[in-house]
Every structure is written in C-alpha cells, then in structure tokens.
Amino acid sequence: MDLILQGLTTQRSTIEQIAGLARSRVVVAVGEHAYRCEGISYNDEVKAQIDVAAWAAQLDYAFIERGRSLGDFKLLVMDMDSTLITIECIDEIADMQGLKPQVAAITEAAMRGEIEFRESLMRRVALLEGLDANALQRVYDERLQLSPGAERMLAAVKAAGMKTLLVSGGFTFFTDRMQQRLGLDYTHSNRLEIVDGKLTGKLTGDIVDADEKKRTVERVCAEMGIQPAQAIVMGDGANDLKMMGIAGLSVAFRAKPVVRQQADVTLNFVGLDGLLQLLDKR
C-alpha cells in the first residue's frame, strides 16, 4: 500500500510529518500539491491518526495499492447533484417557489440517510406543483456549475479509454444537458411530469433511488461486458452507497459522514481531479 496525500496547497514539512505517522521511508511528489508516501505501515490505528492529522491540515489522503492505474478500470460512474455539479438542483428549483429552506432540509436529511430517499423525493417534488417549467432552464443557466476539476478528470478518464455514466436521483432535464455538454456515454435519472408548461408535483416512470442506481451500474457493466469491480463510483449521499458498494473503487466527494465512513477514498478538499493523483495514468 502507498499513502497519497494531496491538498489545494501543501507544505513539504506537513506532508513529511503526516507520512511519518505511517512510517513512510520515501515521499515522492506526484503533482503540484500531491505526494505518494511509499513503504508505509498500515493498520487501523495508523489510519485513525492520519485521518485526524490530514483533516487538521486540510489534506485528503488515501491508502492505495501500489501500481493501480486508470487502465484497471473501464467505467467511471458519477452522481450528479453535489458531486459532478456543485448544487442540488431540486433545492434551486424550489427556490423559484420560495420554498428552498423546506426542500433543502428534506434533501439534507435524505443525503445523511435519515429519511428514505424515495419518500424524501416524493415529498420534495410535490412541493414543486404549479411551478412554471421555465424555472428548470433558469436553474441550469443561472446556478448550475461543474464541481472543481470535473472537466480535467473527465478528459483523463476518456483518454484512458473509460466510459462514463451519470446516474442521478435528480432529473433528466439536467442529466440530458450534462450528457451533451460533457460528452458522457450513459445517463439515468428521474423524469418530472410537466403538463401545460407547469410541474405537476409528480414524477413519471420508475424512481431512481439507491437500489435503481445500483441496478443501473450493474446493467451498464453487463452491456459493456465488464464486472462492477472494473468501475469507479463517485458520490456524496446515502443514496449512493449501494452503487458504491459494488465498485472496484468508491470515492466520496465532499460527502456526508455516513458516506465518508464507507468509501474507499474520500475527497474533502481537492477537486474531482484529485482522483487522478491516486492512480497511475496508464
């Protein structure tokens, strides 16, 4: 195992101090603010010490088997809201109704795993009843931004020959536009019902909850003729855990505590392109 340490800014002395907790013998720069610590000692006690020290220094860390590369994987799976993009789309749609605080509170509870996702989604969508559908375009134009490092990460995984899947508990209005904008291979999300230019407060079709996210990853892997172990899955909320659980590498991005605790890798400070520092580019 190697220990990867990275941050938005780093000081070599801090890196070496944290590396010393794992008794690393060699520290090698692998990026402007990223280091690979080799020859480490790894156990639960060491991990706990590094977790505290890295958080205090605003550094992300990961224990990775030496030699793992992008070439080991064939599919990158991403959640959309608060992962590929910085916002929760439904919260911003609700803001057009003056209901953002109410909807955002339900969203937050669902992402922490305190409310079952399907129930939370139905409750939130119901609050949107009567909203002019043009509000969706306003959210896309005025508020939707890619998370830091998204385009660099996607360029690298595509160059490595990987396919991309965006699977979201959000809405097709946004995933369709992300697919076209970013050249993604697959998308799957929920469809808002619109009648006479107004949101009805209902969805059409099957709900993309945690189970459906997992099934989608399995389905796309089967279509590609690969195993889920050849997929990298990135997410932030409790409804991502089931699909992350079948991945060869699970990545929690700016995630809720329940997700950080279960993921293989957590990225709390760096951008999505922090993934690239964990794996050889081969």
TrEMBL record:
Q: Which GO terms describe its biological process?
A: L-serine biosynthetic process
Q: Which UniProt keywords apply?
A: Amino-acid biosynthesis, Hydrolase, Magnesium, Metal-binding, Serine biosynthesis
Catalytic site: D79, D81
**Superkingdom of source:** Bacteria
Mind telling me which GO cellular component terms the entry cites? cytoplasm
List the InterPro entries hit by this protein, alphabetically.
HAD-like_SerB (IPR050582), HAD-like_sf (IPR036412), HAD_sf (IPR023214), PSP (IPR004469)
Q: Which cofactor does it need?
A: Mg(2+)
Q: Cross-referenced Pfam families, in alphabetical order?
A: HAD (PF12710)
Cite the annotated pathway. Amino-acid biosynthesis; L-serine biosynthesis; L-serine from 3-phospho-D-glycerate: step 3/3
User: If you read the UniProt record, what top EC class would you report for this enzyme, in one word?
Assistant: hydrolase
* The reaction(s) this protein catalyses: O-phospho-L-serine + H2O = L-serine + phosphate; O-phospho-D-serine + H2O = D-serine + phosphate
Where, by residue number, does the polypeptide cross the bilayer? none
Q: Name one GO molecular function term.
A: magnesium ion binding
The EC code for this enzyme is 3.1.3.3
Indicate the family of this protein. Answer: Belongs to the HAD-like hydrolase superfamily. SerB family.
| Name this protein carries in UniProt | Phosphoserine phosphatase
Q: Which organism is it from?
A: Oxalicibacterium solurbis
